[in-house]
Design a protein that fits this description.
560 residues, alpha/beta, TIM Barrel, eight-stranded parallel β-barrel, elongated
Length: 560
């Protein structure tokens, strides 16, 4: 790439010192128009077949789109086919307007009007390219010639509409100066003024003026300046609906759209998940959920995101990237220890405070609002911290580990991740917990037991303890079950352990519920270690926790 950059001309921003869009705030959703079935479909390696298009159309309606561009019926038989199927099978709801695209060429316009026959609500979207570059290298025309093409197309469309007034069709006009962002702003305004005049636009019968960022060739603020210039210089703005159609060549399609709305755009054309030519169109799903995250009703429903995603992938044969905003498999997932800890605390805060607002760090929206599950929010690998493993144990399996136990178990999990060099799934985290805490019965194992409450407020423990491969009968009194147990097992080598902390909770509810006890002991060598016990009887769970801690202490001492 050395010196190759010199052959590119930088985009020259328009002068707009009086711009006002930077001070505006988006407060409501624009009119949305999906172009998945036309712009999105034409960019696919394998274009959708009829049944795939019908499924996609149905899904767009379910999401809540009221305007859907269904194709370019004058371009091919397959494009014509989808339109006729929708009309003849009566698949278009009365509150949904279909949109058809056509070049401003007379024979194509006439064929398009034949194709829409029988539809109730239709947007006739016609266009011709106006950019400086295309006038120079493609059409070899001056601006006057380009204006003539648009105006003649507008006149024919108006004439054909008048001829269909007896068919109860509601026809709306839309004009796009294609490559608007590459057109001199004064020329873009001039051609749209003349098209509106030819179409007879009025405040009661507005014309949609669609401003395509056909090839994104500048930063989003430059596009916003162009949109604001257009809005402030158009003669009869009250007779127009200002629409934008941004592309994503610089990866800024969403940003360009949001700034364009601030600059005066009232309507947005784009695709769900951003499919389209080259790097795609503006992603309507992302823009809508960005608004949603700011407390604005987007007027679209993505609460069934997994289903919408599956339809998209089935129909387009394309996969949604794991990092795609809102929809990607990993976008609500934290591997980092500090992120996991913050998310864990945020979810606990929401539960404890009863806050009416979503206040969880690192999660801009509640995954449940778009049909995502909480289970994969925290995933465990070598980068995870002590709180991540505890979150998995609590969320997936009901074990609410004491906070002081998090470092101990987190270190075990991290060591296992390092050992295998991969992520641990929740079941694998539980398996490690079970192996380290619940299934450690050596060298001491509780074979049988009986607790006796005495009249003098003491408790007596009586049982059989297997030490290594031999059973021992033990019995002793204490101030409680755990104290009695410690007294009883001194005779078989368990002594000089100091009891530090104890906590418990139910693992489940109902008659067959189990309880879990977490016991922290200080071993004879001064190290601190946890044990875990599970039983239907919480007192026995505590004793099992003590034995677990003792066994783990001896195991670790041997390993050292």
């Amino acid at each position: 790439m050395k010196k190759a950059w010199e052959k590119y001309r930088p985009f020259v921003p328009i002068g707009l010192p009086e711009r006002s869009w930077p001070d505006r705030v988006i407060t409501e959703a624009p009119v949305w128009c999906s172009v998945d079935l036309r712009d999105g479909n034409q960019a696919l390696v394998e274009p959708m077949n009829l049944e795939e298009k019908l499924l996609f159309f149905k899904t767009l309606v379910e999401i809540g789109f009221k305007e859907i561009e269904v194709g370019f019926p004058s371009a091919s038989e397959t494009e014509y086919e989808i339109l006729r199927a929708l009309i003849e099978r009566n698949l278009i709801p009365d509150d949904v307007t279909i949109q058809v695209l056509v070049q401003a060429r007379p024979h194509l316009i006439r064929k398009t009007f034949d194709a829409i026959d029988g539809a109730k609500n239709v947007i006739i979207h016609f266009y011709n390219s106006t950019s400086t570059l295309q006038r120079k290298v493609v059409f070899h025309k001056e601006m006057e010639g380009v204006i003539d093409i648009a105006v003649e197309g507008a006149k024919l469309i108006r004439e054909l509409t008048e001829n269909r007034k007896d068919k109860n069709m509601n026809i709306t006009y839309e004009y796009s100066p294609e490559s608007f962002s590459g057109t001199e702003p004064e020329n873009a305004v001039m051609i749209c003024d003349k098209v509106m005049e030819a179409l007879g636009a009025t405040p009661e019968n507005k014309v949609i003026l669609n401003l395509p960022n056909t090839v994104e060739n500048a930063t989003p603020n430059c596009f916003a300046d162009q949109v604001e210039y257009f809005c402030t210089h158009l003669k009869n703005k009250d007779s127009a609906i200002i629409s934008v159609h941004p592309h994503n060549d610089r990866g800024c399609g969403v940003a360009a759209t949001e700034l364009a709305i601030m600059a005066g755009a009232q309507r947005v054309e784009g695709t769900v998940f951003g499919n389209g030519e080259r790097t795609g169109n503006a992603d309507i799903m992302v823009i809508a959920l960005n608004m949603f995250s700011q407390g604005i009703d987007p007027k679209l429903d993505f609460s069934k995101m997994p289903y919408i995603k599956s339809v998209y992938e089935k129909c387009t044969k394309m996969n949604i990237n794991e990092r795609h905003p809102y929809a990607g498999a990993l976008v609500f997932t934290a591997f980092s220890g500090s992120h996991q800890d913050a998310i864990n605390k945020g979810i606990a805060y929401m539960k404890d405070s009863g806050s009416e607002f979503w206040e969880v760090p690192y999660l801009p929206i509640d995954p449940a609002d778009i049909g995502r599950e909480y289970e994969p929010i925290i995933r465990i690998n070598s980068q995870s911290g002590k709180g991540g493993a505890a979150y998995i144990m609590h969320t997936n399996f009901g074990y609410d580990l004491p906070k002081a136990m998090h470092p101990e178990f987190g270190a075990l999990v991290k060591a296992e991740c390092d050992r295998i060099g991969a992520e641990l799934k929740p079941d694998e985290v539980y398996s490690l917990f079970e192996q380290e805490y619940l299934s450690i019965h050596y060298p001491y194992n509780l074979k049988s037991y009986r607790l006796i409450d005495n009249n003098d407020s003491t408790t007596e423990f009586e049982g059989v303890i297997r030490y290594r491969h031999q059973d021992y009968n033990v019995r002793a009194k204490g101030n409680g079950p755990v104290d009695a147990f410690f007294s009883a097992v001194k005779s078989i080598g368990i002594h000089d352990f100091e009891f530090i902390t104890y906590s418990e909770h139910a693992l489940s509810s109902g008659a067959d519920s189990k309880a879990v006890a977490y016991i922290k002991l200080r071993s004879p060598n001064g190290s601190e270690i946890y044990g875990v016990g599970v039983d239907n009887n919480i007192l026995i769970a505590s004793i099992k926790g003590v034995i677990c801690a003792v066994n783990r202490s001896m195991k670790h001492a041997k390993e050292e």
